[in-house]
Every structure is written in structure tokens, then in C-alpha cells.
Amino acid sequence: MIRCFGIRWTVHPLFVFVMLVSAATGYIRELAVLFTIVIVHELGHVMAMRAFGWRVREIRLLPFGGAAETEEAGSVPPAEEAVVAAAGPLQNVWMGAAALLCARIDGVDPEWAMYIAHSNAIIALFNLLPIQPLDGGRLLSAWLTARLPYQTALKWSVRIGLGLSAAMVAAACVPQFGGVQLNLLLIGLFLLASNWRMMRDLPYIFMRFLVRREADSARARAKGTLALPIVVQPACRVGDVLRLFRKGRYHLVYVLDEGGRIEGVVPEERVVGIYFHSGGQNRAVSELFR
Predict the structure, then answer these.
(1) Residues sharing a CB contact under 8 Å with residue 207, sequence separation 6 or more, in sequence order
(2) Cβ contacts of residue 48 below 8 Å, gap of 6+?
(3) Is the pLDDT of residue 140 over 90?
(4) H or E element in which residue 255 lies
(5) Helix (H/G/I), strand (E/B), else coil: 264
(6) Quick check: 176 pLDDT over 70?
């Protein structure tokens, strides 16, 4: 573990395994290329995070990129998430293009330059698979959270990740593809385990989203924002209202009776406050007016 740019950098055991295998088989130069590509890829994410003012705690390096832990997890707008996710593969694009240009320069080994370009293309394309925690999974999550309630978007992001990572594991074991492909199998198992763990942790992730919601609401009110209305009936439970919350949007909850008349309007911070401070998950929203 090292600290650089104020961030703790660690190497995942899967990457350690790849490095040991590469060293044992004599692929030292290839390992150096892979490590450099991964570092630059992650620095692209870090620069984008810093540009948005995110506080990055840790970067875990993997053979195909990395995973970042930030203070802002679950509270940033989907557009920022998408930009940060895309910043990594964009580094592979310019590195690959530079390698292709170098291949045309006299004195540069064209075969080695093409290897670097090819490696960047593979890492970029692999990272764009819509599986968490890959960049494509983050882009998918940002797209879903911009269109669906946050909890629903989380569930679908993880379900898609589980399905695709399971398919990757199956493909790695199909004899028609040349027998068991150990690298693909290990990465597929890692992604499958990551998404399974995320599925298990969904209640905690959603709770963290709600905990940060009160501070986010205060900032939205301070700077002024357009509210996204949520319309419910008086008998709707507080917990069900919270499941309709959208990431990056401020809500006003309209309570309508069966005749369509407005019984009251509740700001989102009151709903969140009742949930946390009064144990009111199962309380009807109509009780908020009493």
C-alpha cells in the first residue's frame, strides 16, 4: 500500500496473482506495460473525480483497471458519475493512438508499439462491459439512476452484472472456445463475487444514500432547484415513498386523496427525518400532517 496524490493505493490479490504468473513465465515487459496502462487508466478517473471535487479515499488496482472508494458514493449526480466512469477508457484511447503513431516512427519497434495499442484496446473494451465495478457498469448505473428511482436502478444494475458475469464464467469453461481459459475464468469469478456482494449490500447502500440525503436536500434548497414531484395516496407508507427517490433530484411529496384533491405537500427532508428519527418506515404519509 502506498499514498500518492493524497490517496491510498492498494493492489488487489487478483492483480498480485497476475503479476506473479507473468514474472514466473518471463513476461516482465508485458507486465510493466499492463501495470503502466492500469495506473494511467486510474489516474484518468482520479483527475475527473478531483475536477468535480470528490474526496477519494482509496484506489484498488485490478488487472483491467481499478475500483475507487469515495466519500461521495451514492450522492453525486448521474452526469458526474458518467464523466468519471468514461475518463478511464479515454486514457486508453489516447495511449493506444499514441502507440499507433509511434509504430510509424523509424527506430521504434512496430511490433512492440502494436502490442501496446492492442493492450489498450482490450482493456478499454473490457472495461466498457456493463458489469459492476467495471466502467461500463458504472455508466449503466448512471444511465439507470438518471431515469429510475435510485433503489430500482441499483437492483437492475446488479442483476445485469450478475447475469453477464455468470455468462463470462460459463464461456470460460466451454470446450468449444479452446478449453478452460484461466484468466477469463478468474476475472469472471471476481466480477460474479463482486456483484453478489453488492446485491447482498443493497440495503446498506440505499441506507447510505438516505443518510446523505438530508445534507443534499439542504444544499439543493440553498442554491435553488427545480423539484421533482412524487404523488402518493394518504395510505402510502413512508418507506415506499423513499423507494421512489431519484438520485440527484430534489422531491416534494404530494399527498392526494381518492378524489384527486391535495391533502398536503411534504418536503423530502421531512420524510427522511421521520424515517430515521421516529422509526416511521411503516407510517402512512397522511400521519405527517398530524
Answers:
(1) none
(2) 83, 84, 87
(3) yes
(4) strand 250-256
(5) strand
(6) no
Residue position matching grid coordinates 470528490: 54
Residue of 115, 44, 121 lying closest to 85 (CA atoms): 44
Give me the helix-helix angle, 78-102 and 135-145, nearest 10°: 150
Buried b (16+ CB within 10 A) or exposed e, 67-88: bbebebebbbebebbbbbbbbb
CA-CA distance, 142 to 153, in Å (whole number)?
9
Phi/psi for 259 (5° steps) reads -85, 0
Query: What is the tens place of the pLDDT at every residue in 52-67?
Result: 888 888 788 777 777 7
List pLDDT tens digits, range 257-266: 887 788 888 8
Q: Is the peptide bond before 63 cis (omega within 30 degrees of 0)?
A: no
At which residue does the C-alpha cell 510509424 appear?
A: 104
Query: How does DSSP assign 78-104, residue by residue?
Result: HHHHHHHHHHHHHHHHHHHHHHHHHTT
Q: How confident is the model at residue 143 (pLDDT cuts 50, 70, 90)?
A: very high
**pTM of this prediction?**
0.86
Give how far Cα 82 sits from Cα of 20, 124, 154, 205, Å: 34, 15, 15, 19
According to DSSP, the residues that pair with 227 across neighbouring strands are 250
Looking at residue 289, its pLDDT comes to: 65
Q: Is the pLDDT of residue 5 over 70?
A: no
Q: How many CB atoms lie within 10 A of CB 221?
A: 13
Residue 208 to residue 198: CA distance in whole angstroms: 13
Pair 285, 271: CB distance under 8 Å: yes
* Host H or E run for residue 68: strand 65-70
Backbone phi, psi, residue 224, to 5°:
85, 130
